[in-house]
Amino acid sequence: MAKVEVNNVSKTFGNGRRALIDVSATIHQGEMVALIGASGSGKSTLIRHISGLLAADRGEAGGTIKVAGEVVQSQGRLTNRVIAIRQNLGVIFQQFNLVPRLSVLTNVLTGCLGRIPRLRGTLMLFNHAEKLTAMHALARVGIDETARQRAGTLSGGQQQRAAIARCLVQQVNIILADEPIASLDPASAKRVMGILAEINRTENAAVLVSLHQVEYARRYCPRTIAMRDGQIVFDGPSKQLTTAFLREIYGEASEELVLPDADDFEAVPLAASG
């Protein structure tokens, strides 16, 4: 079953730069797919279009985007259902998007907001069952002991895990992760990728994760979509992304996609700290 469908989408910014050029891709239920490319390749722009945060070019060039069978946008116009659709879509950003002064538990509980009465959500009045669900989500990502801390006191890796726990509470089966490990140290990055892979397996969730280094794609994602200058230049098994193949696609820019210790790259067990 197709969870994300992108058909012939193009995006041109006001300065004339073409960020997406006739992009088409489909992500199916249960797939974990990496989206790779050098800086400025269009990865983040594509994720923002799928999540309904950006509208494509007007007219036929804008194409169509569907999530779980519902139209998010067509021909550069967002549907009036986009907010409701977004409630069933987990989006994880590089910047974590937590409220630093609120507790970790409260930040995670905001994943409930789309399912509870508006007044209760506005007043942040969560019931016992919702708090238990949030604590279980924090335990799954290994930071339940931080529940009462202010989110701003956590390390970068812990904050990203809190953001993932928020998606678990949101009860989504589609996750878009936009450079979720770009600002993390290697141990925390591997921990976060391991958690996303575990959610993909246990929840049968569709996961599209934008990555800057191909090593993470090869280890955690069976399929990779590679972008260059706003276009998809490869869509296939991640195991085909050899260093030589990347040089063929990206030329000198391939150097920023390959970790210097690629041969020694190993996943960190979920029990590791970070």
Rg over alpha carbons: 19 Å
Put simply, the count of helices is: 9
Please provide the ordered H/E string of secondary-structure elements.
EEEHEEEHEHHHHEHEHEEH
Shape: globular
What proportion of the residues is helical, as a percent range? 25-40%
Largest sheet: 6 strands, mixed
Query: What is the strand content?
Result: 15-25%
- For the termini, the CA-CA separation is 35 Å
Q: From the helix content, strand content and strand pairing, which structural class follows? A: alpha/beta
Instruction: Give me the count of strands.
Output: 11
Question: Biggest sheet: strands side by side, in what order?
Answer: 7-8-9-3-10-11
Low-confidence stretches: 262-274
Overall residue-averaged pLDDT value: 90
Question: Which terms would index this structure?
Answer:
274 residues, alpha/beta, five-stranded antiparallel beta sheet, 9 helices, 24% strand
In words, what does this structure look like?
- It is built from nine helices and eleven strands.
- The protein is of the alpha/beta class and about 270 residues long.
- The model is unreliable at about 260-274 (pLDDT under 50).
- Helix 5 packs across helix 6 (about 155-170) and helix 6 (about 155-170) packs parallel to helix 7.
- The protein has a six-stranded mixed sheet, with helices on both faces. Strands 2-1-4-5-6 form a five-stranded antiparallel sheet, with helices on one face.
- The protein is about 30% helix and about 25% strand.
- Helix 7 links the parallel strand 8 (about 175-180) and strand 9 (about 205-210).
